Amino acid sequence: MSKKSPQLLAALQNGLIASCQPVDDGPMDNPNIVAAMAQACVIGGAKGIRIEGVANLKATRPVVDVPIIGIVKRDLPDSPVRITPFLQDIDDLAEAGADIIAVDGTFRPRPVEIEMALKRIHERGCLAMADCSNLEEGRYCHQLGFDIVGSTMSGYTSGEVPDDPDYQLVRDLKALRANVMAEGRYNSPELAQQAIRCGADFVTVGSALTRLEHIVSWFATAIESAQQGGK
Fold first, then answer.
1. What is d(CA 151, CA 181) in angstroms, rounded to the nearest whole number?
2. SS3 state at 201
3. What residue numbers bound the domain in which 54 lies?
């Protein structure tokens, strides 16, 4: 665990982490816009920011003073793992100013073993977060020494994505005495609030805050449904 872990974790405690990840190749997919999103989120009360991509992180780091979780997403031909798959990604995120670096914490085939990723993150002086999909993965990552264990990947590794957040996973991870990040489908203040009541230490919200295309589509679909006599 990094020497700065207690201070960083205390700064985030019971807080909202805003994931400022615009739709890929959309009109808001620009480092300056991402940095502006992050600033607006901090003004609104976010205690931390989650940023994808080194260029976006470099643009955001100088304009916010809250902890930043950094990730790099890649589409690999030989692995389903997308979140910070390589050691070089960890190095690049650390150099760009990430305080916390998140990696895929699932048991799926990967280019770099979880243990190696954890070691490199801590060597770079950053806190390590594991994005997990189930309790077994979360337990393993917590025992390895990850500073934060998240429910990020729950519902996204196979089959149809559920509508609701995985509150049970949050409860189970907290029973391990881990620092728990609730993440994944927390699309309203009420859902995020419930995550804290279930034991989460922090809650990450993404689409409902920073993916304008998604937010508008929710309203547009609801209005269209009402026009057609739906509920």
1. 7
2. coil
3. 4-229
